[in-house]
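seq as requested:
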Amino acid sequence: MARIDEGGAPQGVIDVTPEDFHAVALGLADGQERLHQIRLKLFTALDGNAGAAGAGDGADAFERAYQEAMHTAVAAFFRAYDVLGSVAAGIDQAGLNHWNADNASRPQPGPAPWTPLIPAKAAGSPAWPGLLGPEEWWLPHEIARYVPNADTGRLTNIQMAFEQAGDAVQALAADLKNRMFALVENNDAADVDALNDFWDRLAGGHDSAIFFVLPQFLQKLSTAFADFRVWVVDTRERIEDSVRDVVDGAGLGLAIAGIATIFTDGFFEVLAGAAELLGIDVIGLLAGPVAEISAGAVATLEGAEVIGAVAGGVTAMAMAVERTPEPNIEQADTAKLGDELGDQTARLPEPKYPEKQLQSHFKHAKDFGVDSNWSRAAANEYEQALRRFAEDPANEVNLAGTYRGDPAILIYNQFSRVCEVLRPDGTYWTGWKLNPQQLKNVVERGSL
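struct tokens:
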């Protein structure tokens, strides 16, 4: 890619040419399509395994976590897609700038060697299927709602789809980083260094780099499906054991100890018939023990190991989306990339965070990623989180907004719906995760 400049650079120093910039820009733009195909492949797998979780209280709980996770995943894919295009356009413009500078020094300047790159923007509202399916048709609802009936084969398919998507995004990021380093490894030009620093913000090993966090998030979802599959099998076995004990204790005269699985339509018909002959309410007999086991199992499912882990991943992914800049590079010198990203915050007054105000609104700390009880240390953590949000170039700023009719500065992110409100002098006022109508008012009217 890069070549020795016979006339300019000292021996052994690689001089990056304008064409090198253009080649890397095209590679990054192609990365957009590769990222799009990764998402399409994942969604195809989800479509082919719809309803995998089956029915029941556990399936309902897992479905809720899954839907929130998918909204966040789509937002992350879209932001990653757009930012790749923005960086590609910036690098392409850098190449044209270098070419124009060289061309202007020639006696007879010629036309530009290529048309400026205009990358595509993410668009559309992708849909994905739900995980819920029908209950066991032959079981009464009073019992079926507690008995997991997920299709473990399809759960495995979804698990593998998320794992493969995470691996693919990680491989894509590594490949694109290598393309970037082809420009920067032997060149000290300020513009190239600026782009290298910017790419580190996108894919460096930290929790605000979207191409670092997105593969982790997809892997976390893969693990969640594996854990849910294990939960389904374990819970169903425990319920079957409980039913065996109840049936044996009821004296129904059924020899079920050696039956591998008792949840079949034929077994329940026999059980119901035997109970009817003895005047026993089989539903009432079984519902209590089954419900008790199910309640404990669902509580475990909703804990930190499965659904709780998904929720933590959603928070981390949403924060990475918020903190990922979306530059629109139009400067003559790409070295000004950092200035472009700083334009938004430069217009803000210096944010100030009085402790009394922090304590008054600490109930919203979780919306900014601080999950702890009030203390001096928590107050400092909350202040730093608010300051990062206020200064984050990925967020939008309305300096002429209003809060409850009074002048205010509104800083918000349309992906996460989180909004921070400052007084006109920069003093922290309040902030929380908006509901959809509040966000619409902020975006369209500048009022909250």
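The two ends are 52 Å apart (CA to CA).
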